[in-house]
């Protein structure tokens, strides 16, 4: 969670959260989203939930807990919205974009030339927050693989938070965000606001047309996608999961990754201790399988 911005609960007539109430929310959030909140997150949880409790006129966390259970899906979604951390940037982790542009893209272009791969690229931004990640992918993919050369780019972008998805679908940012975007992508893919939109930028029609947003809880089974992805970005999401839920999510992500596909995670995350499901290509970029290719068995 980001740092608490709400007034202290006692200033709002809300009784401070008890250890028991914190455990109830901790279990519920873990069960629903796979997100494990350590005891250190108690004040932040208290701040975030008290904002919603004020709207509902509730004064105890126990009452809000029961409201969440009774109201079903809608209030559960709001609860998860309140606890998720949504920090994101354009072209976050520049070394990964360098890997794409210098290593992977030339390889794909060569293979397509030789007729060994279709001119179609599918990417998934899993945990896309307010959209900077999938739009960054769209800019770099469309720049290197334009439709005028016969390429087709499709990007799926999913998140647990409906609040973030709403922002991603209305992709307008303050102009300061241009500092995060490499200059060669700005002109072709971003619109600059004038008059009432002065000081803002908006994702242009070309990148908007290749990104599709959907709500998806990575902790739930049955991802509604068909066909494998060449790239899966699941960055700075698994950091909030414990080992067990991380394993489950990783298995599901790998089922959606094509045999030659690449999985990207955040630099503060690690997949060590998760068996030989993946092998590292460069730090934070993985492919399916152990350290040896499938042709080598353990037996001599
Ligand atoms: C810190 S942001 C990272 C955004 C982007 N991937 C990046 O690296 O800039 C983490 C995102 O993961 C989402 N998230 C957390 N748990 C999730 C879950 N169980 N299923 C889907 N998304 C989840 C949050 O809502 C949040 O938008």
Structure, described:
It is a single chain. This protein has 300 residues and is α/β, with parallel strands linked by helices. It folds into two domains: 9-83, Chemotaxis Receptor Methyltransferase Cher, domain 1; 94-288, Vaccinia Virus protein VP39 (Rossmann fold, 3-Layer(aba) Sandwich), CATH 3.40.50. Helix content is 40%, strand content 17%. The protein has ten helices and ten strands. The chain has helices at residues 19-33, 42-56, 61-71, 73-83, 94-113, 132-144, 162-169, 183-189, 205-210, 243-255; strands at residues 120-126, 152-159, 172-174, 190-192, 200-203, 211-215, 229-233, 257-264, 278-282, 285-288. A seven-stranded mixed beta sheet has the order 6-2-1-7-8-10-9. A three-stranded antiparallel beta sheet has the order 3-5-4. A hairpin with a 2-residue loop joins strand 9 and strand 10 (285-288). The longest helix is centred in the middle third of the chain and has 20 residues, at 94-113. Bound molecules: S-adenosylmethionine. Residues 33-35, 84-88, 92, 127, 129, 133, 159-161, 164, 216-219, 235-237, 266 line the site of S-adenosylmethionine (SAM).
CATH homologous superfamily placement of the largest domain: Vaccinia Virus protein VP39
Task: Give the number of DSSP strands.
Answer: 10
The overall pLDDT average reads 91
The general outline is globular
Low-confidence stretches: 1-5, 292-300
Classify the oligomer: single chain
The name of the CATH architecture of the largest domain is 3-Layer(aba) Sandwich
Tally of helical segments = 10
What small molecules does the structure contain? S-adenosylmethionine
CATH topology of the largest domain: Rossmann fold
Distance between the termini: 50 Å
Instruction: Please indicate the count of domains.
Output: 2
Class from secondary-structure proportions: alpha/beta
- Beta-strand portion reads 15-25%
CATH class designation of the largest domain? Alpha Beta
Radius of gyration: 21 Å
Could you give the order of the helices and strands?
HHHHHEHEHEHEEHEEHEEE
Widest sheet, order of strands: 6-2-1-7-8-10-9
Largest sheet: 7 strands, mixed
């Amino acid at each position: 969670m980001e740092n608490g911005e709400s007034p202290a609960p006692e200033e709002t007539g809300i009784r401070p959260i008890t250890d028991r109430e914190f455990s109830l929310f901790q279990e519920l959030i873990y069960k629903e989203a796979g997100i494990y909140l350590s005891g250190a997150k108690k004040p932040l949880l208290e701040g975030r939930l008290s904002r919603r409790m004020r709207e509902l006129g509730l004064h105890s966390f126990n009452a809000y807990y029961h409201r969440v259970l009774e109201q079903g899906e809608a209030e559960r979604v709001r609860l998860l919205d309140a606890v998720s951390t949504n920090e994101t940037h354009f072209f976050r982790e520049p070394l990964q974009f360098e890997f794409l542009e210098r290593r992977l893209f030339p390889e794909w272009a060569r293979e397509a030339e030789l007729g060994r791969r279709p001119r179609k690229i599918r990417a998934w931004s899993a945990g896309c927050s307010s959209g900077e990640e999938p739009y960054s992918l769209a800019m770099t993919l469309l720049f290197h693989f334009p439709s005028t050369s016969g390429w087709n780019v499709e990007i799926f972008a999913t998140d647990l938070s409906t609040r973030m998805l709403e922002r991603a679908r209305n992709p307008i940012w303050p102009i300061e965000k241009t500092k995060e975007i490499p200059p060669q992508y700005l002109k072709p893919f971003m619109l600059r606001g004038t008059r009432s939109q002065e000081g803002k930028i908006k994702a242009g029609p070309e990148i908007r047309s290749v990104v599709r947003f959907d709500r998806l809880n990575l902790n739930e089974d049955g991802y509604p996608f068909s066909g494998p992805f060449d790239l899966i970005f699941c960055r700075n999401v698994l950091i909030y999961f414990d080992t067990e839920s991380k394993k489950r999510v990783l298995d599901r992500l790998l089922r959606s990754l094509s045999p030659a596909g690449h999985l990207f995670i955040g630099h503060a995350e690690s997949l060590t201790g998760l068996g030989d499901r993946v092998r590292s290509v460069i730090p934070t970029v993985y492919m399916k399988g152990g350290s040896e290719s499938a042709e080598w068995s353990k037996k001599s």
